[in-house]
Amino acid sequence: MSYVEVPGAKVPIRMWTDPASVEAGAMQQLHNVATLPWIKGLAVMPDVHYGKGATVGSVIAMKDAVCPAAVGVDIGCGMSAVKTSLTANDLPGDLSALRSKIERAIPVGAGMHRDPVDRERLYGFPVEGYGGLWERFDYLADEVKFRRERALKQTGTLGSGNHFWELCLDSTNAVWIMLHSGSRNIGNELAEHHIGIARGLSHNQGLVDRDLAVFLAKTPEMQAYRNDLFWAQEYAKYNRAAMMSLSKEVIRKEFRKAKVSFGEEISCHHNYVAEERYDGMDLLVTRKGAIRAGSGDYGIIPGSMGTGSYIVKGLGNDKSFNSASHGAGRKMSRTAAKKRFSARDLAEQTKGVECRKDTGVVDEIPGAYKSIEQVIDQQTDLVEVVAKLKQVICIKG
Hints:
By secondary structure, the chain is an alpha+beta fold. It has helices at 24-33, 68-71, 96-105, 148-153, 184-199, 220-254, 334-340, 343-349, 372-377; strands spanning 4-6, 13-15, 39-49, 56-62, 65-66, 78-87, 164-170, 174-181, 215-216, 266-269, 271-278, 281-288, 290-292, 298-302, 309-314, 323-325, 354-355, 383-396.
């Protein structure tokens, strides 16, 4: 489908879904964003739903302003995936032992490594791609500097919530590794620090929603936020790269006889800010639950823990600010999912997947999410499908 335009106060709201299908709370958030004096465009992806700070599945383009609560507390959250030389025939019938080995290699939930991972010893880790990351830690906000050791030990860790690690098969039965995580605790603390500062600035006092407080260009507050924001985005990518290296090492050892090789990694943020140019203007584009889908850009659009995911290539649609959805998108809150579904429902909906099937992850049940196939169908002018993946192992924190 193409987009539908809904009138907004300052800009039209371009929606790649039926506006009538969007819950009232999310639609109100979108209308609130469209009132911002600095906004130059607002695009809404088919996985749209109500979110903390701003609507998940929205792309907010502003001139000389950025909203830290719209970026969210998991700065740089995103996906990575890689195709391996393994096929389904190489996998054992019982995948529980492999799942356990991955969980030992990559801490989940609030866990961290006992000692920081040695990037020089990580298999295939692109050391040269992160020069100066830890040297720049000293220039972050003073309020987080005591977290250096924790940030180091959380490098190469998964987290919880909707974060996951998966082993998947594509339609040719090739094996893929896919994972979803972000900037861990350090990103959360940096976000909360700056959101608090933004709310107290005088130019934000008349906004319709205090969560839409912004920093303005050429101010000390904006300079400080940009410094911390871009560091956290890089740390999130670094974290995923470390997890991918740890994953590859486990797979190589587990399938030593197969002499496993790996393709080129695909990595994309979906909670972040980018400096991009549209209609002759330099804009700050916030993708809140959206990936960049410029022409030829590879991206990852996951479904839920029992339904599968898509590898896509961007078509470069300026009307969406070169963006696409970041996943299936929730159709009910975590609280609602816990009330509606049981562990038995989870086991039924994740049949054939080696994963947790207990009440602790019922809020991540496939039934709490929209149809990933429908979400993909609604953005055929934004991306083309490269591969469809179906998970055989799913690890949740």
